[in-house]
Amino acid sequence: MEVTFLYAIWSITIFSLVLIPKKRLNEASVIFVFQQLITWSLGLIVAELNWIEYPVREFASVNRTSFTFEFWVYPLISVFYVLHYPVHKSIWKRIFYTSIITTVLIISEILFEKFTDLIEYIHWEWYVSWISVYATLYIAQRFHRWFFKFE
Amino acid sequence: MNFDYFIIAMIWIVSIITLLIVVPRSRIREYMAVFFFFQSLTRIFGIVLTAFGALSSEVRLFERATKISFTSEFMFYPTMAVVFHRWYPDQGGKLRVVLHYVVFTGVIILYMYLLATFTRIMRVDAQQLIRFFFNFVFEFWTCRRYVLWLMGTTKLQAYHGVGGSEEWK
To answer: Which NCBIfam families match (chain A) (predicted)?
Structure first.
């Protein structure tokens, strides 16, 4: 069942690429590789300290981290998050936007944790995930604004 | 053991100092793109090549979490890509460009060879080194295409001094 999920996740995310406007592929690529840098280091720390385990994963012989999530899915989610970020709205709307996306992500993570072997919390709580996702999304968004000199 | 970790620390220090010296402040974004994009390439190649057994690392950071050489893939190779990009012979002829590729890929191969011979940070055999040579030529080339495309699309330098650009859709 887990492998089916992985197939589904890869298919959906690959198809979702068409939703990125061609003109903004440059922005998307920068957000993507930047978020990869963050997930690479944080993912390794989390796996090294045995806080989270991914029993079913790709390249299981090489990594204890989740390749699908850290290399592909999360950077891609960050791309969509940043490209649709309501820059000119009030601060409360922006916080609301980030919170909603973070919450949806964490709810799906909890469901995966409970019902599949894709992820297991060892020494971990859902709110740590919530905070780290919120923080990394925010950092990616700030980096994007700085990189393309929108401010 | 201790010697290997000393070498790992040295690789980090030398790479960071190299980055600080080599990257011009006014073009920091461009070089960040080089660095991050190359990291992405080495990460995927590192994982795949390790999975197929072409590469292994005995002494490494994050020993439990990964079998790839984090120090090399995360820091050293991307730093080399930055240096590669910094002195790329734009105005040079074909021969200069080929030489540029050979020299930089050669440095990486030498690095791998030295680590494999004198430390336990990396394990590769001589035949694999030839494969890695072409692998890195490909990575350098891809990275260069990407950065040229990125700079062409965004005109990052042109925004200098304008600031407060409201229209960004």
So the answer is: CBO0543_fam (NF041644)
Does any domain span residue B61? Answer: yes
Domain containing B86 equals 2-14+27-155
Domain-located, residue B116: yes
Q: Mutating which of A25, A32, A37, A42 best tests the B interface, going by the most B Cβ atoms within 10 A?
A: A37
Q: Tell me: the pLDDT tens digits for A53-103?
A: 999 998 988 999 999 999 999 999 999 999 999 999 999 999 999 999 999
Q: How high is the pLDDT of residue A151?
A: 58
ipTM: 0.92
Mean pLDDT within A122-146: 95
Using the Cβ of B39 and the Cβ atoms of chain A, whether some distance falls under 8 Å is answered with yes
- Range A127-142 average pLDDT: 96
End-to-end CA distance of chain B: 53
Residue numbers of the domain that contains A113: 2-13+25-147
Q: Answer yes or no: is B83 within a domain.
A: yes
CB contacts of A48 in chain B (<8 Å) are 62-65
Number of domains in chain A: 1
Nearest CA to CA, how far is A68 from chain B (Å)?
11
Residue A115 located in a structural domain? yes
Per-residue pLDDT of B84-117, as tens digits, reads 999 999 888 899 999 999 999 999 999 999 999 8
B43 CA: distance to closest CA in chain A (Å): 9
Partner-chain contact A47 B164, CB within 8 Å: no
**Confidence at B156, pLDDT banded by 50, 70, 90:** low
- Residues from chain A contacting residue B50 (CB–CB below 8 Å): 62
B164 min Cα distance to partner chain A (Å): 5
Q: How far is B95 from chain A (nearest CA, A)?
A: 31
The verdict on residue A18 lying in a domain is: no
Do B68 and A45 lie within an 8 Å CB cutoff? no
Residue B71 lies in a domain: yes
**Number of domains present in the structure of chain B:** 1
The reply to whether A73 falls in a domain is yes
